[in-house]
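User: Please predict the structure of the protein below. I'd like the answer in structure-token form so I can feed it into my own downstream comparison script.

Assistant: Understood. Taking the following sequence of 99 residues as input:
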Amino acid sequence: MSIYLLPQRMDKALLVGTTVIFFAAMNLVKLVPYALLGLFDGRNLAASAALAPIGVLGIFCGVWLRKIIPELLFYRLCYTFLFLTGAKLLYDGTSKLIH
């Protein structure tokens, strides 16, 4: 998703909003299969409820950071984290081949 959206150089609010809507839709699509697989048991739902306040705090922190970070720095951070994520995935994949 990031590899496709970042080069389009959208306004950072539009980029974040597009990403949020995309992943919200993907998570909604997963609800029925997860329910059919029985993954919504009491322990799982209790853990989700316990972690919900941290998620809300994360939303407020994200909104605040989006407002204060200049657009150029925002994009540089996005590309940096995308590179680091790719490097980690490559490391994990190649280390499994070696062992």
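That's the full token string. The chain has a mean pLDDT of 92.
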